[in-house]
Design goal:
With 692 residues, the protein is an alpha/beta fold. It has 3 domains: 389 residues, Na+/H+ antiporter like fold, CATH 1.20.1530.20; 129 residues, Rossmann fold (3-Layer(aba) Sandwich); 126 residues, 3-Layer(aba) Sandwich (Rossmann fold). Helices cover 61% and strands 8% of the residues. Strand 6, helix 22 and strand 7 form a beta-alpha-beta unit. The longest helix is centred in the middle third of the chain and has 38 residues.
Length: 692
């Protein structure tokens, strides 16, 4: 039997791993424990130091390293950069606290209680100070990834890990006798150059890649993988660790990969299905219980390390709660996110062992510390994260949510993929409502052939949405004309938004201001969005929101603002408001009621007639132009508004454009859509909610 172990057949090894990935979370769920704990325990039991079924060979090391980098990358990718910028002082404060307390107290414990010399004690304490966001996928699945406390913990990770790795570099250099003035200059210059290249060069390169390659999901996915691991490799060249490079790559690509996009879904799926489980198994395989039978010193060091990291990280989380005013559940989530040890701990352990500061007892103590903290972290985040999620849901239930339903009108005159991507950004994942791709065929000769072509378009639309894990319900209507068919479907479904494409086969005036849009605007019970797409949506670097005079007095204004702020948040793009000076103060007040997560700035116009000149002076190539549309007879309506979209389209031919005609609350109620009518903001959590 022993001759057959460990399993060498790669096909059988992968089959065993796949079975563990499938069953471990199911078994743990019976005891209401996170699935990550099951994978860690499975790695420890089946690994080379226990039953020996699986060997920790190069494949596990490779996939485990990829999984670790993937965790750091996804964590940075899901950060709301506007929230991170708003709470950057919180992230810095937490990063310093969660580094200083474990580093300071850990050094004293290692020197005076465990008997290490000062260099070894400082290096050992740096292992307590660093942490790995092992439990972050749990926070993401619970829908609290953009909670203030989670953002603070993720942002603080880069601070504490960088400082801990700096301690590692200094201790290793001093032991080898290479720390001099030139060492500090080399380290500072290389890190500065590395951060500059990643944070400036990578977004520039990615924006152009997405713009010119576009629509090719495989190419986009491979490009992102190459960027992540390329940055991780460059981090080593710069004197840092790969986890820092992966984290910075996520921050650099954050604005270019919307949270609800197909690409984001593919990245998350690949990590959670393969890379991250491999990492958890590989960590579990490191534990060697035989060393603990060698003598009491191994137990003393191991227990001391485990207690030290748990206590100091707990104290850091509690100090953060007191300093930043978080509640207890937020503090426990921060503790869970910051207590797990893996990457920097292993790096410090290996380096300390190689230079003679650590022995086998410290190596096993570090592995036991990794195992214990990797069990505690998911449990803490799962338990207290659920409370945060439930509290957020209760707050959201205080306002009545609209039952959101989004129709995307497809035709052979405009590409359907950009409209579907826009619908994904508008849709609220929390409601789990499908998107409704709609094809309308005009009744007459050849209608049967057109139905077949429409069904093929709808099939492609369903496949596109399925790739993003978005449910779809295709619709086909035969009617006298396009507008009648869309409106009939809208009323049957009680849809809240209808998205149309800007036809490229007719003139702008004929399409926008002929019978189609005029007839559709007669129904005020839904929001009409007309989109002209020139570039992939994720390449938009800024949103220019043009608001005509007196628009803020219209009943549908909060709904329009909610949609635009949600789009800006999804795209992680700052917003520039263009409006008349007399209206600016009122509009700013209305915008503040929504607490937009994007940066908002205003440009005052002397007169509304100067809008085109103002866009020309302040606009950039990658801007998305958004015009607040006014329905005839509204307070903001004037005859010039009918010609304005065509003029904007003529002047700014290379820019993405959106025309948004918000629904009117009374019409919504009349059409049977339940909404919460409040003075501010009216609309809907589904347009500015947590997810996305």
């Amino acid at each position: 039997m022993h001759e057959l172990l460990p399993v060498q057949n790669p096909v059988l090894v992968f089959a065993i791993v796949a079975l563990l990935i499938l069953l471990a979370p199911m078994v743990m769920a019976r005891w209401r424990l996170p699935g990550a704990m099951g994978l860690l325990l499975a790695g420890a039991v089946l690994g080379p130091n226990a039953l020996g079924v699986l060997a920790r060979d190069q494949s596990f090391v490779l996939f485990g390293t990829v999984g670790l980098l993937y965790i750091m990358f996804i964590a940075a990718l899901e950060i709301d950069r506007a929230v991170l910028k708003r709470y950057r002082s919180h992230s810095i404060a937490f990063g310093l606290l969660t580094f200083a307390i474990p580093q300071g107290l850990g050094t004293l414990v290692a020197h005076y209680l465990l008997g290490f010399g000062w260099p070894a004690a400082i290096l050992l304490a740096s292992m307590f100070a660093s942490h790995t966001l092992l439990a972050y996928p749990i926070a993401s699945r619970l829908g609290i990834a953009r909670n203030e406390a989670v953002t603070t913990a993720v942002g603080g990770t880069i601070v504490t890990d960088t400082l801990a790795l700096l301690v590692l570099a200094v201790i290793a250099g001093s032991t080898r006798g290479t720390v001099d003035e030139a060492f500090w200059y080399r380290l500072g210059l290389s890190l500065t150059a590395f951060v500059t290249v990643v944070m400036i060069g990578l977004p520039w390169l990615a924006r152009r890649f997405f713009r010119h390659v576009g629509r090719d999901g495989v190419a986009e996915f491979v490009f992102v993988l190459a960027a992540v691991f390329g940055c991780a490799s460059l981090a080593q060249v710069a004197g840092s660790e790969p986890i820092v490079g992966a984290f910075l790559a996520g921050l650099a690509l954050n604005r270019l990969i919307p949270h609800n996009s197909t690409l984001m879904n593919r990245l998350q799926f690949t990590g959670e299905a393969i890379f991250i489980p491999f990492f958890l198994l590989s960590v579990g395989m490191l534990l060697d219980v035989h060393v603990f039978f060698a003598g009491p010193r191994a137990w003393t060091i191991a227990i001391g390390m485990v207690v030290a990291v748990l206590v100091t990280k707990w104290l850091a989380a509690e100090a953060t709660r007191l300093v930043l005013g978080y509640d207890r559940d937020q503090a426990r989530v921060i503790f869970g996110l910051s207590v797990a040890q893996a990457a920097a701990t292993l790096a410090a352990t290996i380096v300390g062992y190689e230079i003679g500061l650590f022995d086998d007892a410290v190596v096993n103590g570090a592995i036991l510390m990794i195992l214990v903290t990797c069990l505690v972290a998911p449990w803490m985040v799962d338990r207290h994260g659920r409370r945060l999620a439930l509290a957020s849901d209760r707050e959201g239930d205080e306002e009545t949510r609209a039952q959101q339903r989004v129709i995307v009108a497809l035709s052979d005159r405009t590409p359907g993929e950009p409209l579907l991507e826009l619908a994904q950004l508008v849709r609220d994942p929390q409601q789990a409502q499908p998107i409704f791709p709609l094809a309308v065929i005009e009744d007459g000769v050849g209608a049967a052939e057109q139905v077949s072509a429409a069904e093929r378009r709808l099939a492609r639309a369903v496949a596109h949405l399925s790739a993003a894990d978005v449910p779809a319900q295709p619709l086909t209507r035969i009617d006298l004309n396009l507008s009648a068919g869309i409106l009939r479907a809208r009323r049957e479904l009680r849809a809240t938004e209808v998205i149309l494409g800007w036809s490229e086969r007719t003139t702008t005036h004929e399409f926008l201001f002929g019978s189609v849009v005029d007839n559709m605007l007669a129904d005020a019970g839904y929001t009409l969005i007309v989109s002209r797409n020139r570039k992939p949506l994720q390449t938009c670097s800024r949103v220019l929101f043009a608001i005509p005079p007196n628009a803020d007095h219209e009943p549908g204004f909060p709904i329009g603002v909610a949609i635009v702020t949600r789009l800006a948040r999804q795209l992680a793009a700052p917003m520039l408001i263009l409006t008349e000076r007399e209206d600016e103060a009122r509009i700013r007040k209305c915008m503040a009621a929504f607490k937009p997560q994007a940066d908002v700035r205003a440009v005052s116009l002397q007169r509304w007639s100067g809008l085109i000149r103002a866009i020309g002076e302040n606009g950039r190539e990658d801007d998305m132009l958004v015009l607040y549309g006014t329905r005839p007879g509204g307070l903001a309506w004037r005859p010039a508004m009918k010609r304005l979209p065509a003029r904007l389209a003529t002047y700014f031919t290379a820019s993405n454009m959106l025309l948004i005609y918000p629904a009117e609350p009374r019409a919504l109620q009349a059409s049977g859509v339940a909404i919460g009518v409040r003075p501010s903001p009216l609309a809907p959590d589904f347009l500015s909610g947590r997810a996305g």
